[in-house]
Amino acid sequence: MNSKLFIVLLGAPGSGKGTQIPTILQKYKLDLFSTGDNLKKEMKNETLLGKKIKYYLANGKLVPDQIIIEMLEDLVFKKSKKSNGFLIDGSPRTENQAILFEQMLNKINCKVNAAIDFLVPDNILYERIKGRLIHVSSGRIYHKKFNPPKIEMRDDITNEILIKRKDDNPKILKKRLKEFHKFIPSVRKFYSKLNVLITLNGNQSAKQLSNEILISLNKLI
Predict the structure, then answer these.
(1) How far apart are the C-alpha atoms of 63 and 23, rounded to whole Å?
(2) How do residues 138-183 score in pLDDT, each as one tens digit?
(3) In the chain, what is the greatest distance between 2 CA atoms, to the nearest angstrom?
(4) 107 is catalytic
(5) Is 17 tagged catalytic?
(6) Considering 27, 107, 165, 175, which one is annotated as catalytic?
(7) Does the pLDDT value for residue 34 go beyond 80?
(8) Is residue 94 helix, strand or coil?
């Protein structure tokens, strides 16, 4: 089996995945694949794939599994020779995506080495989303209550302005959580059968969660 690492992050919006990404990237020297960021990039660049994505989103439809896998495949085959592996955020969201992704990795003699699931009660997710602030260029995440910046609405390192994402509101979160709870059980079951599922309590301090992630990964990888 290839020595490259593939780690996927499961968990609902606001579960703390974004906060933990730098810790995992630094520890294992991985490249990041963010499904959301790549969807936006394809649409912005008006690629053929981007036009397809825009059509589905404009018509209120989910982006088909095959398109998500195409993006992942493009990334893996372009960068795999130069990379130690990838941290995947935002995929797979369905069991079918998980199956297709595993099949695609098998073609290059790789596999998903770990799937980290962050468990957080829905009421806590609503509270987190309500106060979340983002530094766009770095992806650093703050929270008005739980992790406030040193200067209000300013990034601690660059002093650049922080923003609140348009989709960080209760109405949109409710819709996203409904979709998440519909599909996540089968995704968890899939990775559990492969003995790569790591289930963690996401309702704790970021530092404690970071420690648990690294301990769990060291045992599995």
Answers:
(1) 29
(2) 888 999 988 999 999 999 999 999 999 887 888 888 888 998 999 9
(3) 49
(4) no
(5) yes
(6) 165
(7) yes
(8) coil
